Request: fold
Amino acid sequence: MQVSKTPLDGVLLITPPTIFEDFRGQFVETYNRELYNEAGITVDFIQDDISVSSRHVLRGVHGDAATWKLLSCLHGSLYLMVINNDPASAQYRQWTSFTLSEKNRQQVLVPPKFGNGHLVLSEQAILHYKQNTTYCREGQFTIMWNDPAYGMWWPISNPILSRRDLGLG
Reply:
């Protein structure tokens, strides 16, 4: 298992402990608590979710003050944006991005007070995420994908967005 720091404090890029491929296909160990704990990742994950979307769908930049997330792409490829939304941090409003795919099998650990959003690059993609809290809509924040205060770069100018991500509710 390989764990790398990123430009944002607390955000980690992870190559899972086991990726095996042969003539039959591929086997990936996406999570092993003991190995993650040995690597210093001691988050107690309690909920798993997936998001299935089509090309050019951009799913928000959302987060909350309590949730750690471990994100990976199970199918297809996507552009993942992670933003520090902690006003008390010296890195407030700074962002970094990653391309996650079924080919590279990389994961990104996102701390509380950080927002994340993703844009589907392939015909369809499945984002998987583990969380240490159950989802609570009331505690969520949304950062507009094109908010000039953050200076984000996305590889698209006209994505497919939900009403929430359009700022309409």
